[in-house]
Amino acid sequence: MSDIRMCTVPEALQAPVPYQPDAAQRPAIERAEVLRYLGYAGQHIDEELAGRIERIVAELEHEVAPRGVRRVFAVDATGTDAAGDPCIRLVGTTVELRGRDVFRHLKDARCCALVAATLGMASERRLRLLARQNPLDAAILDAAGSAYIEAAVDEMDAAVGNAAQEAGLTRNWRFSCGYGDCPLAAQDAIVAALDATRRIGLTVTDSHLLLPAKSVTAMVGLFDGDAHAADTRPSCAICRLAGSCSFRARGTTCYAGT
Known about the structure:
single chain; alpha+beta
């Protein structure tokens, strides 16, 4: 188990790092991912629909700039929560990560990289307007937005890995609130720890959902030695929604391509 006295953040990783690619460096939206979010399972797509999808995706790439912030905090895995169960705390923050799955994910980590990214309110307003005007275009935009924010987080995730390697650390895969038994309620403290409201306009609703909706928070464990569960990816086995999942009903998963 982690010893808090040893879990210091390397100096090179201590400062918050913004993510705001310019127009030429924005991540590309994978068209296959857009189709997956739309529920595509090999159906015929006529020329008119294909052109509509391409137009909406290209406009989103051109008009919306994802933003994000990441920061590394020391891990304290020595304490318990109010119920007496082991939990993860991030030193210098109010973040308390409860649940067996996230505890296993981070208990041996020296530190944890918190990541937050959003497409911003411009994307949100555009989606709401389209929902009233053209439901089909709105559905395509919604799918494109989901693929876009994942592409942005993938870039931030890769940057975490590069920074960890430069600091002589290893990393495991990114974990988000809502995976397994890690509650969404932790998102409030994660957003606060990253100062994400001021930095990127990210807030949390009373029900602990992110606003704007096309936003993601995640955590990555950083290790001195071999990364714990480095090869273990998200799976349906730890998901509370597996029994009613629309992705599984279509023969796919929400984490395809990760």
